[in-house]
Design brief:
heterodimer, A: 67 residues, mainly alpha, B: 155 residues, AhpD-like, 8 helices, 70% helix, 0% strand, globular
């Protein structure tokens, strides 16, 4: 699995975590809407913060994402 | 902004348990669909629903599908789109990406994105990918909620 962006991204476009920011060059509503869905789902679950973060990191690792 | 996408049953259950999440999903889908032909987003959403929930489940009313730009023939042949002549090249590229993403995000290859990119702009590809992500996530959540409902019903 590649971790190289498959759509054009400006060189040096990094997010707060230091990963390549594939959203940087595109309509900001795409990123904001995704964040809204994620934020709405977070309190919906019954998981504590630690378990939530462990699951998130494990999922990121499985998918070859930087985190 | 494009017309509201047709409603699938899963959101009814997500709304029941997590109304704020259901609203956020609806808003995001409508936004993403506004970047392209809405039928592309809805075809992918319906195909993912078929894979996750089973292709024999009636997922949508045909009249609602037509509102989104999906023809009755496409709706009838969605599960067999590989061999159907009802889908154009853009729709086929999007459905192929959706199926691989649904199987496993890791199974998506450069050639899948290249094929989609032959028909869509980069911004549309980013939007489509997020639309597939939100459909995949919500369908799997639906399955979980459905099992919760079944458990509650037997109590």
């Amino acid at each position: 699995m590649t971790t190289t962006p498959r759509i054009p991204v400006s060189p040096g476009a990094l997010n707060l975590a230091g990963s390549i920011d594939v959203y940087a060059d595109y309509d900001t509503r795409i990123r904001e809407g995704r964040a809204e869905v994620t934020a709405a789902g977070r309190p919906a679950g019954a998981l504590d913060q630690l378990t939530h973060e462990l699951v998130r990191l494990r999922n990121a690792e499985l998918q070859g994402c930087h985190y | 902004m494009q017309p509201n996408p047709p409603q699938l049953q899963p959101l009814a259950d997500i709304d029941r348990y997590y109304p704020r999440l259901g609203e956020a999903i609806q808003r995001y889908r409508a936004l993403l669909a506004s970047f392209m032909r809405p039928a592309l987003v809805d075809l992918c959403r319906l195909r993912i629903a078929q894979i996750v929930r089973g292709s024999d489940v009636p997922l949508i009313d045909p009249s609602e599908a037509q509102t989104a730009g999906i023809t009755p023939a496409q709706l009838a042949e969605l599960a067999t789109w590989h061999t159907s002549d009802q889908f154009d090249a853009t729709e086929r590229a999007c459905l192929e990406l959706a199926e691989y993403f649904c199987y496993s995000a890791q199974s998506v290859r450069d050639e899948h994105i290249a094929e989609v990119s032959a028909h869509l702009t980069a911004e549309q590809v980013l939007s489509l990918t997020n639309a597939i992500w939100v459909s995949d996530s919500s369908e799997r959540l639906y399955n979980y909620l459905e099992s919760l409902g079944a458990t509650e019903a037997t109590r």
